[in-house]
Amino acid sequence: MSSQDQAKRAVARAAVDSVAPWFGTDAAIGIGTGSTADLFIDELAAHRGSIAATVASSERSAARLRSHGIRVVDLNDVTDLPVYVDGADEIDGALAMIKGGGGALTREKIVAAVARTFVCICDASKLVTVLGGFPLPVEVIPMARAYVARELAAIGGQPRLREGFVTDNGNLILDVRGLQIRDPRGLEQQINQWPGVVTVGLFAARGADILLLGTEDGVREIRRA
Ligand code: 5RP
């Protein structure tokens, strides 16, 4: 197993402590998407009898949860979501993130908006000074693809259609290279305003509250200032 995989496994295990206070209650737990979230789901399997319900940010995670016998409910049926655990493609010191490498950015953003606490789990390679090294995903309604791509190029990005990929919502993803994102909140707001954009994979207005970072020296916990 690579050291990156070991780090992912360590943070997935550590994240169980973040949700343990709601074991044995009727609270639902928010579950993210990606390889690190998959490991977290596998860790939850041992506690399936104590978990009343989960809300998943993708069909992929919902299927994995169900395969472990963990109940998945619709977000619309939940009035309070105390905690959401998910990975990130990049995260900065202020706990703003790029997400959507797995294409689940819109549902992730919706679940994150409802959650009281967002716990981000990732290995140390994801922590960066300036966001943008990882191509920024933008989910677009199909007829807006070319228009939004032109707008992204006009702000200095190099958008590329994610070939052969359709989101859980039936839309497309543009992955944007070449952006040095020094104002994540401003860029999130700007891109989200363009007609046809469903959402941009910048999580700055609602970033993480807690980062569990897998390092060679173990799991570091960083809280939003
Ligand atoms: C999926 C995501 C994931 O959280 C992100 O891609 C990180 O994935 P991984 O844990 O596989 O590195 O945003 O849409």
Commentary on this structure:
- The mean pLDDT is 97.
- The two termini are 34 Å apart.
- The chain has helices at 3-19, 35-44, 59-67, 105-114, 145-154, 184-192; strands spanning 28-31, 53-56, 81-86, 90-91, 97-98, 115-123, 136-140, 158-161, 172-177, 197-200, 202-203, 210-215, 218-223.
- With 225 residues, it is α/β, with parallel strands linked by helices.
- It is built from 6 helices and 13 strands.
- Strands 2-1-3-6-12-13 form a 6-stranded mixed beta sheet, with helices on both faces.
- Ribulose-5-phosphate (5RP) binds at residues 32-36, 86-89, 99-105, 108.
Q: What is this structure, in a nutshell?
A:
This protein is α/β, with parallel strands linked by helices. Helix content is 29%, strand content 27%. The chain contains six helices and 13 strands.
